[in-house]
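Q: A reviewer asked whether we had any structural model of the full assembly, not just the individual parts. We don't, so I'm hoping you can provide one. Inputs are below.
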Amino acid sequence: MDRHSPHDFTATWAQGVLGEVVVSAKEVHDRVGELGAQITRDYASSPPLLVGVLKGAINFMADLMRAIELPVEVDFMAVSSYGAATKTSGVVRIIKDLDVDLSGRDVLIVEDVVDSGLTLNYLRQYLGARSPASLEVCALLLKVGEQRVEQSLKYVGFSIPADFVVGYGLDVNERYRNLDAIYTYVGKA
Ligand code: IMP
Ligand code: MG
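A: Here is a predicted structure for the entire assembly that you could use as a starting point for your response.
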């Protein structure tokens, strides 16, 4: 294993359940840098409050906030929409709410993936009711053609096919979040 180019090797411990690389570690890294630069420009006069959606957005949040050259603040929410299955239930449950007041804040929701869009739709209404000055979304992944509710996403990292994916924060049954690249999942759900 070449430790100097970790970008596309598949970890031996995860072989057998991972399919093809959907987004390589290098592509993720480069795109997150671009998003950070864009957010830096767009929010220069008013640094945003980044609201990460646990747990899937942890890797993305950690990299994105360091790519933004502004005094951003960071908070997290935890929601559950899936349980252990790989298809959305449409029901969103708040497991951890925010610790900060949103009124007058420029809020940027940081999401791992928008699939049906039901989770984001719910979050937008929930957070929008707390009088933020603005409320926008930065999603790393957008599954093409899957949205059941109209979404206006200010920032999208990558549009990807509708296959189930893991890695870079995305899990199946809590596993594979610690991979640097994003892969299709071909193991048993
Ligand atoms: P939505 O409500 O259908 O848009 O689903 C959004 C949430 O489901 C995301 O925040 C993820 O936590 C999870 N999810 C959707 N697609 C995937 C996937 O391909 N892999 C892992 N988690 C996913
Ligand atoms: Mg998520």
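A: Points you may want to mention in the reply: The chain is about 20% helix and 30% strand. The first strand starts at residue 18 and ends at 23.
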